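DM between two lab members

TW: hey, do you still have the Segregation and condensation protein A entry open?
JB: yeah, one sec
JB: this one, 241 aa:
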Amino acid sequence: MEKLTYKLDTFEGPLDLLLYLIRKNKLNICDIPIAKVLDQYMEQIDAAREQNLDISSEFLEMAARLVYMKTVYLLPKHEEADTLRAELSGQLLEYEACRQVAALLGEEFQMDSFTREPAAFPPDTTYRRPISAQQLLQAYSDAAGRRAVPPPTQASFSAIMAHRVVSVASQIIYVLRRLWTDRRISYRTLFVHKKDRSEIVATFLAVLELVKGKRVRVEGDTENPTVELLKAGERKCKRKH
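TW: and the structure you got?
JB:
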C-alpha cells in the first residue's frame, strides 16, 4: 500500500481518517483488510505524536478497536471478527452518506440563500424493502415454531450481575493512554489500582495483545519489568527480523 503523507489534524475524526485510507488505496469498504488499514492508521498516529500534535481519545479508541479486530482474526474461528468488521463497514457507509449529503447542502445553501419553514408531510409507512419468498418462508417457520417462554426471573441474572465484566479492548485503551506521555513505564504500575479480578485479567490480556500486535515491548528482569511503546520504525524492523 502506498505510504500517505498528511497531518492528522486535517481529519474530523477516526472514521474520516479510515474512509480516506480506504478510498486512497481503492479498497472495498464492505471487505476491509484490517491488517493493512491498521498499519497505515498507526503510522499516522505515530507521525502525529512525533510532531507533538494533540490526539483526541477518539483516534486512540479506534486504534484499540482495530488492534482487537486484528487479533481476533488470528483465532481459528472468525465469527466475532467478521461481525466487528461488518459493524465498522456500516458505520463508514453511513458516515460517507452523511458527508455526501453535507456537501450537497453546502452547494445548495449559501449565505445569500432563502430559507423557509419545512413543509408538513404525512409519514410514508409503505414497506419497500425487497424480500424473497425464501425469507418469507423462513420468517413464517420461525414464528410458527416459537414457543411461549416465561420471562426470566431476577434470580437468573444474579450470577451475571454479581461479577463486573471488563473488556480487553477497554484495557488496551488504558495501556496506550498510560504510555502516551511516558513511552516506558513499570509493568507493575499498570496494576496498582486494579483491585477487581476481571480488571487484572483484562489488563494482562491487553498487554499480551499489544505485544502480539508489535505495539509495545516488555523488557527487564522478573523483579522489575518495564513496558515500552514501540515506534512505527521499530515495528517494521521487528517484522523483518
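TW: got it. Residues 162 and 193 are 20 Å apart (CA to CA). The longest strand covers residues 216-219.
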